[in-house]
Queue: 4 jobs
Job 1
Amino acid sequence: MREFPIKIDGDVDKVIAHCKAKGINPGYRLSDDELLVAITEQRSRAQIDNLVTAVKEALA
């Protein structure tokens, strides 16, 4: 498993809510502008791409 923080240029809580509404677990809020993301070998490239798309949508 790989865990890493990503810096969010926007509202982390909005990103989390948007992802969850799409059935995606985006990770955990670390701070006002950081999200801890975990990627495992059980996730497909399509699932990871869906997470990226959902985060971009939430920040648009």
Job 2
Amino acid sequence: MVGRSNARSINESIEARLPAASGTAVLEFRGLRHVVRLGNLSSSGALVIFGHTPNIGEKLSLQLLDRGPVWAQVRWVKDGKIGLSFTDLAQ
């Protein structure tokens, strides 16, 4: 169980998600770029299939094929998948 220091400002669990099982993206993780599969995608975040284990709260750059890079923060990690929440670099 991961404790939260801040309450969520929105309930992301009910937000509409687009299946992206065949979609790919480029994730920059600790200075290296990795081609990753997208599990799903919403306006506020993504589920990414990724073989490495980032830290909860770590900020990563995600390059989606249909738009430029976006900053994302790791919200959860489990069984080779990570949950990302899109954020602003300045936060």
Job 3
Amino acid sequence: MKELQVPEFATYEEEADFWDNLDTADFMADDDQWFRFETLHKRAIRVAILPEIAEELRQKAQAQGVSIETLVNTLLSEHVRESTLSH
């Protein structure tokens, strides 16, 4: 088992890209236990999404070749930015 070296990130997007593209198999002990990586950016929260919306998001993310998390964060970021600019 390797030790994971987590770099410092300049942006949330850099961090999301790092975690989206990380294969954690090499960093897992073979003891059937789940693990958690601590990060500097502790902004992630869980949000319930209606199943039909989640399916649409999953399909769009797959078509764009990104994770659903990346797609949702991008869409929310754009929406918040647009809302801020229009007020």
Job 4
Amino acid sequence: MVDKNAVSSPAEKDPSDWVTGEEPATGPQESYLSTLAQQAGAEVDTDGLTKAEASRKIDELKQETGR
């Protein structure tokens, strides 16, 4: 029987397991990363980041900024 009261969250795949993880970071990722870095008072060089690297850095900065 399925517990209808259980909170379900979407399954998250580790960025290193993404099929497209080694592709260059997207424009929206770079933009969001720059915004988060500014809010955290950090400097982030987005040149040459992969999608997976950008995702991990976004997660780090989200924790730092409480977003």
